[in-house]
Design a protein that fits this description.
Chain B: It is an enzyme of class 6 (ligase). The complex is a heterotetramer, with 1 copy of chain A, 1 copy of chain B and 2 copies of chain C. By secondary structure, chain B is of the alpha+beta class. In chain B, 38% of the residues lie in helices and 22% in strands. The longest helix of chain B has 21 residues. The radius of gyration of chain B is 26 Å and the shape is globular. By secondary structure, chain C is of the alpha+beta class. Chain C has a single domain, classed as Mth169, Chain: A (2-Layer Sandwich). Chain C is 33% helix and 37% strand. In chain C, 37% of the residues are buried. The chains are: A alpha/beta, B alpha+beta, C alpha+beta. Strand 2 of chain C pairs antiparallel with strand 2 of chain D. Bound molecules: adenosine-5'-diphosphate and magnesium ion. Adenosine-5'-diphosphate binds next to strand 4, strand 5 and helix 17 of chain B.
C-alpha cells in the first residue's frame, strides 16, 4: 500500500493540481481535500498548495486559516501528521501559528517569478529526508508576499534548533530575514517554504529539472515506513 | 420621475431623449425609431447606444474585416470561426484550442493598474465562454518614450495590473511584447491574449434556445462601474483635460474571476449549460441581446432580480453597467437546481433573471412594467455600417522617399562595436525580464517555453506531450512606412517565432490598434493593414479566427503608428521536441538561414542610432517564410538543431546577443562573403533565423536546406565567453549582459 | 515632529473586493452584526517643522496627486493630536 | 448604523518597504520635509445595532485574532463620531 497524500483546495488555490501531479509522479496516491470539509479522508500527510486563497485579501493566508479543513489540519499537525505548506500554504501555516513568524510584502514590492537556488539546511524533516544536508537545489519561486520576518529571539531559536530548513542562495529575492526560504516546527512534521518544489518535478516543465521531487519521495518513504 | 416604460414611450412620441450624449448620430437615432415604430424608451436607448458604439458594433471597421472571412484559407483545423467569442481550432488528439487577443487601451491610460487588470479579466472570460479551460495569457504592450515621466506612471501600473490579475487567476504568462515609442505617449496600447483548451465535444456557443429555459446571471454583483464607458470610450477621443468625460473606472476582482472559472468549468463538465455568454463591454445589454439573437426564440428578463452592489442604480444603468466577473448562462429548468448547487459550492452568487420565450422579442421588465421590447438582432447585429472615406495620406510619399539607406553607417570597427552595444541596450531591444519576472510563468505546471523565448509553449496533454505555441508581434514603425507590408511583416514575424520554437503555425488572432477612423489617412492605414493581413493569412494558410479593433488611439490630431498586433498559434505533437533560443553548448555550429539584404527602413538601428523613421520597410516574402518554417520544424522534429532564434528587429546581432546571454555562452562569428559587417549585423531582412547545429548533424541539416532551396550560411560557432565578430570587435558576455539587462531596471525599478 | 495622517479609501461606488472578502469571512469566525466592511490605506507622515496651513496644503496636494488615485479613491488629511 | 474604524499598522521595528517607497518618491515629486512615512490599513466597519462596550469588546477581539496579525502588526479601534 502506498501513502495517501492530501492536497487542500481553498477558493483561490492555484497550484493544487500541480501538487497532486507531483504526488503522483513521486509514486504516492494523491487525494483532493476541500476547504469546507473537516474530514481528511484518511490521508497520511497534507500539502497546503500555493495560490491566492481568498485572493490573499486582508493578508495572505489570513482567511483560509479559519476554514473547517484547517481546524482538523491544525489538530492533526499538533499530533504529528506531516504537513507541507508551499508558498500560500506556508503563509497559512504561519497565520495558523503552526509555524512561527509572518510573511510580508517583498522588500521591492513586486511579484517575483524566478528560478531560485536554495540550500537544504535540514534534511531530517518529514519532507526533506531524501536530500543530503547542505544540498543545493533549484526550484521556481513566485510570490509577492514572500518576506519572512520574525522577532530576533525567534530567529535565534530557529537557528539554534536547526529549524531553518531552507535558505536562499546567490540572491535573497525578497528581503527575508537571514535569507530564510523555509522553516520547520520542532518536531519536523510541519514544514513551510516559499519556493515551489511541485513545479520542479519533471524535465522540460518549469525550471526543467527535478530538484523538487525529493519533497514528495521523502514523505512517501516516511509515511510508508511508519 | 416616472418610469419610461414601453407604454409611456408609445404615449409620448415627442419626448426628447439624450441620444446625442450617448454617442448616437441623428440618422442612427432615426433608424432606432424606425425599427421600433416608436421612440425608444430610456432603457432601449441605453442598449442601442452601447451596442451600436464603435467598440461593440465595429461600424467603421466591419466592411474591411469582412476580408478575413472572404479570403479565409481552406483549413480543416478551423472548428469555430470569426463571430463567436473566440475562434476554435482543432489541434489533434481530440483537443481544440481557442485563443484571442483584445485591447484595453483607453482604460489603461486612465488607471493603469485596473485598466490592465480588467483587460486580462475580460479576455479570459471570452475564452471561458467557449467552453475551454484558460491555460495561458500573453500581453502585447506599447508605451510612450521610455524616459518620459508619464511612462514611469503608466508602465509599472500596467505591468502590476497584468501580473496582479493573471497571477491571481493561476494563468501562466508565456509571452508578450514591450515597445516604447513616443507615438504612444498619450495612448499606450494594452492588448491581452488568452488561450484555452477543451475537448471537441465541450465547445459551447453563445445562444439562447428552447422556450422555458432559464437565463442565469452569475458572478459578481452589478455596480455602477464603467457605465457608458463603452460608448464614451470608443466613440470619442479621450481628452484628459476634461475630467468630466472620464468614464467610471472598473475595478477587477481576480479572486472572484478564479471562482467563476472553476465554477463554470464544473457546470460545463456536468453538461448543465445550453448556451453561455460572458459579460464584457456593454454588460447585460450585450449578453442578453446577443444570446437572444443567436438563439431561436425570444427572451424575457426581470431586471429587478439582478443582484446589485448599489441599490440606487436605475434600470438603464443596470443594463449598461460593465461590472466585471459576471457571466450569463442559459440552463434547462431541470438543471437549474444543480447549477445553483455548484455556484454555491464555489461561493458564486447566481440568480435566475429571466427565461427564453416562444416569441422573437427581447423583453425586459422593471417593477413589473415593460421597459424594453425589441427585436434582439437589431441591437446585437444590425448596428450601422460606415463606409468611411479613406485616402493615402499626402505625406506617405515623402516618408517613403526618406530612405534609411542614406543614413551614415559606422566608419570604424570601434564605432560598429559602440553601435552594437547601444542597440542591445536601447529600451526596445533591452531585456524585459524586470517586467516579465513579475508574471507567474510556472503555474499549472505545463509551461515548456516562456519569455524570453521566441514563442510561449504550453503542454496540453501530459501523456502524449501535445502542446501549443503562441507568439504575438506588431511593428508600428514598419506599418507606418507601409501599412499593407507592416501587417504582413507582423504576421510573418509571429509565424516565424512559432516555427522557430518547433511548432507548426495553424491560426491567427489579431488586435488592430489605430487612430481615429474619421481621419481618412488613418482609415487608409486601416484598410491597407487589414488587406495585407487577410492576403498574408490566405497565402500562409493560417485563418484569422477572431480578434479585436481599437480605434481612436490618438491625441488631438495625431494618431499612433498604425499597430496591427498579430498572434499566431501553432501546434507541436510532442513538446519534448521544442527548440529553445539558448546557445547552451560550446562547439555548436551557427547557421544563418535566409537572405540578408540591405534593409534598414524602420529598423531598430535607424531608430536607436539616428532617431530616424523613413523609407520602405523590409520586403516580405511569404513563400520564403513558409519554407523557413518547414525547415525549422523539420530540424526540431528530427533533432538536427539545438537552438533557433528568429531574426527581426535589431537583426542578427540582437538575436545572437539574446541566445548567447540565455545560454551563458559566447560566439565567434565570421562575416559571410558578399556581406559587409554592418549589414550582416543590423539588417532586418525577414525570412531569416539563426540556428545552432551540433557538428554531428551538420551534413544532414545543410543537405536538407540545400535540397529544399533555403540558403544556409555557416556564420560561426558557439564558443568562449564573448561575442566576437572576426576582424571587427569582441564584446565580453559580461559587458553585453550589463548593457542588455541594465536598461529596463534602471528606468523603472 | 508632528504626525499627519492621510486616510485613503475607495470611493463608495467602486468595488472593494478586499473589504468584501473580510466581511464574508466574519460570520464564519463567529462575528455577527457587521453590515459592511471597507478596506483602505492609512499613511502616517512624520512632518519636519510646523504643521501650519501651508504644510497642510502641501500634504493635501501630495495626497491628491500621489497618495490617492482620485479616479477611484477619496482621501482625508488629519493632524494627529 | 454606527461606524467603527480599525487602524492596523506594522510594528515600528518591522521594515515597511511600502512606506519607504512612498517617502523616497516624495522629493522627486517636489514634496520636501517629510521625515518618515508608514503605510498601514484602515478598516471601516458598519455595525448593526448599538456600539456599546460589549460590541467594542467583540470588535477588539476580531481585530486581534483576524484583522491584524499581532506577530507583526499593532492595531487601534476607534468609534467614528
Ligand atoms: N509584456 C510581456 N509579457 C510577457 N512576455 C513578454 C512581454 N514583452 C516581451 N515578452 C517576451 O520577451 C521575449 C522577447 O520579446 P520580443 O523581443 O518582442 O520577441 P520577438 O522579437 O521574438 O517577438 C519574448 O519571449 C516575449 O514573449
Ligand atoms: Mg523572436
Amino acid at each position: 500500500m502506498t501513502a495517501r497524500i492530501g492536497v487542500v483546495t481553498f477558493p483561490g488555490t492555484l497550484d493544487d493540481r500541480d501538487a497532486l501531479r507531483a504526488v503522483r509522479l513521486a509514486g504516492a496516491e494523491p487525494v483532493s481535500l476541500w476547504h469546507r470539509d473537516k474530514g481528511l479522508k484518511q490521508v497520511d500527510a497534507v500539502v497546503l498548495a500555493g495560490g491566492f486563497s481568498y485572493g490573499d485579501y486582508l493578508r495572505a493566508g489570513a482567511i483560509s486559516r479559519f476554514s473547517p479543513v484547517m481546524e482538523t489540519v491544525i489538530d492533526q499537525a499538533r499530533s504529528g501528521m506531516p504537513v507541507l505548506g508551499i508558498c500560500n500554504g506556508f503563509q497559512i501555516l504561519t497565520e495558523a501559528h503552526l509555524l512561527p513568524g509572518a510573511m510580508l510584502r517583498n522588500n521591492h514590492l513586486h511579484f517575483i517569478c524566478r528560478d531560485q537556488k536554495l540550500r537544504v539546511e535540514n534534511a531530517e524533516t518529514a519532507w526533506t529526508a531524501e536530500y543530503e544536508q547542505g544540498r543545493e537545489i533549484s526550484v521556481p519561486l513566485k510570490n509577492v508576499d514572500g518576506r519572512y520576518v520574525a522577532a530576533e529571539r525567534v530567529l535565534d531559536e530557529l537557528e539554534a534548533e536547526g529549524r531553518v530548513a531552507f535558505r536562499y542562495l546567490d540572491l535573497n529575492p525578497n528581503g527575508s530575514l537571514r535569507d530564510i526560504a523555509g522553516i520547520t516546527n520542532a518536531e519536523g512534521n510541519v514544514v513551510g517554504l516559499m519556493p515551489h518544489p511541485e513545479h520542479a518535478v519533471e524535465p522540460l516543465i518549469g525550471t526543467g529539472g527535478t530538484d523538487g521531487l525529493g519533497f514528495f519521495t521523502s514523505i512517501l518513504k516516511k509515511t510508508v515506513a511508519t | 420621475m416616472t418610469l419610461d416604460t414601453v407604454k409611456h414611450a408609445t404615449e409620448t412620441p415627442e419626448s426628447e431623449l439624450p441620444w446625442k450624449e450617448l454617442g448616437l448620430k441623428e440618422d442612427e437615432y432615426a433608424r432606432i425609431r424606425e425599427i421600433l415604430g416608436r421612440r425608444p424608451t430610456g432603457a432601449e436607448l441605453a442598449m442601442y447606444s452601447v451596442m451600436w458604439s464603435e467598440h461593440c458594433s465595429y461600424k467603421s471597421s466591419k466592411v474591411h474585416l469582412k476580408q478575413f472571412g472572404e479570403k479565409a484559407p481552406e483549413n480543416d483545423a478551423l472548428l469555430v470561426g470569426i463571430g463567436e467569442n473566440a475562434g476554435v481550432v482543432d489541434v489533434g488528439q481530440g483537443y481544440a484550442v481557442t485563443f484571442k487577443v483584445e485591447s484595453h487601451n483607453h482604460p489603461s491610460y486612465i488607471e493603469p493598474y485596473q485598466g490592465a487588470a480588467t483587460g486580462v479579466g475580460g479576455i479570459v472570460r471570452d475564452i471561458l465562454a467557449m467552453g475551454a479551460r484558460p491555460v495561458a495569457v500573453m500581453d502585447p504592450l506599447r508605451f510612450g518614450a521610455a524616459d518620459h515621466p508619464d511612462t514611469k506612471r503608466v508602465l509599472p501600473g500596467v505591468v502590476a495590473g497584468v501580473g496582479g490579475y493573471g497571477n491571481c487567476l493561476g494563468l501562466p504568462n508565456i509571452g508578450g511584447e514591450v515597445v516604447f515609442d513616443s507615438c504612444y505617449q498619450g495612448n499606450p496600447l494594452v492588448n491581452a491574449l488568452c488561450v484555452g483548451v477543451m475537448k471537441h465535444e465541450d465547445i459551447h456557443l453563445a445562444k439562447a434556445s428552447g422556450a422555458g429555459n432559464k437565463v442565469i446571471l452569475y458572478g459578481a454583483r452589478t455596480g455602477g462601474d464603467g457605465i457608458g464607458g463603452v460608448s464614451v470610450l470608443a466613440s470619442e477621443t479621450f481628452d484628459d483635460t476634461k475630467p468630466a468625460k472620464r468614464p467610471a473606472v472598473q475595478v477587477g476582482d481576480p479572486f472572484q474571476e478564479k471562482l467563476l472559472i472553476e465554477c463554470t468549468l464544473e457546470v460545463f463538465r456536468e453538461k448543465l449549460v445550453a448556451g453561455i455568454q460572458d459579460l464584457g463591454g456593454a454588460g447585460l445589454s450585450c449578453a442578453t441581446s446577443e444570446l437572444a439573437s443567436a438563439g431561436s426564440g425570444g427572451m424575457r428578463v426581470d431586471l429587478d432580480s439582478v443582484p446589485l452592489r448599489d441599490a440606487t442604480l436605475s434600470p438603464e444603468e443596470i443594463l449598461m453597467s460593465e461590472s466585471q466577473e459576471r457571466m450569463c448562462a442559459i440552463v434547462e429548468p431541470r438543471h437549474v437546481e444543480r447549477f445553483m448547487e455548484i455556484c454555491e459550492k464555489w461561493d458564486v452568487i447566481a440568480t435566475v433573471i429571466g427565461e427564453v420565450t416562444e416569441g422573437e422579442r427581447l423583453e425586459i421588465f422593471w417593477h413589473g412594467e415593460q421597459i424594453v421590447d425589441v427585436p434582439p438582432g437589431t441591437v446585437a447585429h444590425e448596428g450601422p455600417t460606415y463606409h468611411r472615406p479613406y485616402a493615402r495620406p499626402e505625406w506617405q510619399d515623402a516618408l517613403q522617399a526618406d530612405d534609411a539607406g542614406r543614413l551614415p553607417r559606422p566608419a570604424t570597427s570601434g564605432e560598429l562595436r559602440e553601435q552594437v552595444l547601444k542597440l542591445v541596450a536601447s529600451p526596445n531591444q533591452a531585456a524585459k525580464s524586470w517586467i516579465t519576472d513579475q508574471y507567474d510563468r510556472f503555474v499549472q505546471g505545463n509551461t515548456v517555453l516562456a519569455q524570453p523565448e521566441d514563442a510561449g509553449m504550453v503542454r496540453i496533454d501530459p501523456d502524449t506531450g501535445l502542446g501549443v505555441a503562441l507568439a504575438t508581434d506588431g511593428n508600428g514603425r514598419y506599418a507606418k512606412l507601409d501599412p499593407y507590408a507592416g501587417a504582413q511583416l507582423a504576421l510573418a514575424e509571429a509565424y516565424r517565432n512559432v516555427a522557430a520554437s518547433g511548432a507548426r503555425p495553424l491560426a491567427v488572432s489579431d488586435c488592430l490598434n489605430f487612430g481615429s477612423p474619421e481621419d481618412p489617412a488613418v482609415m487608409w492605414q486601416f484598410a491597407e493593414a487589414t488587406r495585407g493581413l487577410a492576403d498574408g493569412c490566405l497565402h500562409l494558410g493560417t485563418p484569422v479566427t477572431g480578434g479585436n479593433v481599437s480605434l481612436y488611439n490618438q491625441t488631438g490630431d495625431t494618431a499612433i503608428h498604425p499597430t496591427p498586433v498579430v498572434a499566431v498559434l501553432g501546434v507541436i505533437d510532442d513538446v519534448a521536441r521544442r527548440t529553445p533560443i539558448a546557445f547552451a553548448e560550446e562547439g555548436l555550429l551557427l547557421y544563418l538561414l535566409g537572405d540578408t539584404r540591405e534593409e534598414f527602413g524602420g529598423s531598430a538601428w535607424s531608430q536607436v542610432v539616428h532617431d530616424h523613421l523613413g523609407g520602405l520597410p523590409p520586403k516580405v516574402d511569404l513563400d520564403r517564410e513558409r519554407l523557413l518554417a518547414e525547415i525549422l520544424i523539420s530540424g526540431s522534429r528530427d533533432g538536427m538543431i539545438d537552438a533557433a532564434h528568429d531574426l527581426s528587429d535589431g537583426g542578427l546581432v540582437q538575436a545572437v546577443t539574446e541566445s548567447c546571454l540565455r545560454g551563458g555562452k559566447g560566439a565567434r562569428l565570421v562575416v559571410p562573403d558578399g556581406l559587409d559587417a554592418f549589414t550582416f549585423l543590423f539588417s532586418e531582412s525577414p525570412g531569416r533565423a539563426v540556428v545552432a547545429v551540433p557538428r554531428s548533424e551538420e551534413l544532414r541539416f545543410t543537405d536538407m536546406c540545400g535540397a529544399r532551396g533555403l540558403p544556409a550560411t555557416r556564420i560561426g560557432v558557439v564558443d568562449g565567453d564573448a561575442v566576437e565578430v572576426q576582424g571587427e570587435f569582441t564584446v565580453p558576455l559580461g559587458e553585453l549582459r550589463t548593457a542588455h539587462e541594465g536598461t529596463v531596471p534602471a528606468l523603472f525599478a | 515632529m508632528a504626525r499627519v495622517v492621510v486616510d485613503v479609501m475607495l470611493k463608495p461606488e467602486i468595488l472593494d473586493p478586499q473589504g468584501q472578502a473580510v466581511q464574508r469571512a466574519l460570520p464564519r469566525l463567529g462575528f455577527e452584526g457587521i453590515a459592511d466592511v471597507r478596506q483602505g490605506k492609512r499613511f502616517e507622515l512624520e512632518v519636519d517643522g510646523p504643521v501650519d496651513e501651508a504644510a497642510l496644503a502641501r500634504i493635501h496636494e501630495m495626497a491628491e496627486t500621489f497618495l490617492a488615485n482620485t479616479v477611484i479613491e477619496d482621501f482625508v488629511v488629519k493632524v494627529e493630536s
